[in-house]
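Researcher: Here's a chain I'd like modeled. Treat it as a single chain, no partners, no ligands.
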Amino acid sequence: MPPSTRSRGPSLAVRSYLIAFNALSTVGWASVIYLAVAVFRGQRASSSAYDFFKSLASYVPTSIEALITPQPKITNHFSTTLINFLHPYFPATYKSTFSALAPVQSLAALEILHVLLGFVRSPLPTTVVQVSSRLILVWGIIERFPHTHSSPVYTTMILAWALTEVPRYAYYALSLAGCGVPAWLTWIRYSTFYVLYPIGAGSEALVMLSTIPEWSGGKWVMWSTEDWVKAGLVAVWVPGLWMMYSHMMHMRRRVLGVGKGQKLGAKPKDRFKAE
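Model: Modeled as a single isolated chain. C-alpha cells:
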C-alpha cells in the first residue's frame, strides 16, 4: 500500500510496517498461484484448510461459529450444467490452495484499519466493500458450502485474484521502499485488470450463484432470506464490475499517460492510492 499524502509522509515505523505488509501479501498471493499451478501439473495436495481452522472454533462466539458451519449441498440446474462443462478444463484446487488463500485474504482486512488510521488515503467505503466482499466469499460461501470446493469457478476466481494481487502488492512494496518500480511491473499493475477483473468478478458471482437453490418453475418462492440476499449480491456484480473498471481505467490513464503524469518506470510518487 502507498503512504499517506501528508506533507511529511508516514513515519519510518509506519512505512516499515506497510512495506512488510505488502511484501508478505505478495508472497502469500504468489503461493496461491504456485499451489494452483501445481494442481494443473498433476501435483495435487491433500491438505484441507478447514481442518486447520476448525481448531480455532472454540474461541469463536457461537453466533459467529454457526456462520462457518458446513451446509448441505444447495445448487441449481444452471450452475450444475456450467460446472460440468468447465470441469475438464479447470481442476479443483481447493485442497491445495485454501490453506494459503484463507490467511492471505483474511490479512487484507487490515487494509480497512490502514485507512481508518490514516496510513493510506484510499476511500473507506470502497475499501470496506472490496475487502468484505471477498471475506464473505471465502468464509461465508466457500467454507460453508463444501460443494464449491470442487468447482472450476473457484479455481478461476482465485487465479484472477492472485494474478491481480501479486503485481499490486509488489508495486506498493517497491514504491514504499523508495525503489524504482520496473516499467513492466507498472504496466502489469495497471493493464491486466482488463482481463482479470471480468474473470474474477464473473467467477465470484458464479461461485455464489452455485449456492442458491433452483429457481425455475416457481421454485424461487421457497427461497430463504439468505438465498434472496445472495441473489441480490449476484445481481449487483455487473454494476460493481463497471464501477471498478471505470476507476481502474482512470488510474491507468493517470499513471501510464503522458503529460503531468509520472514517467513509466520512474520512482513512484506518494500520490498513488491503494486500489
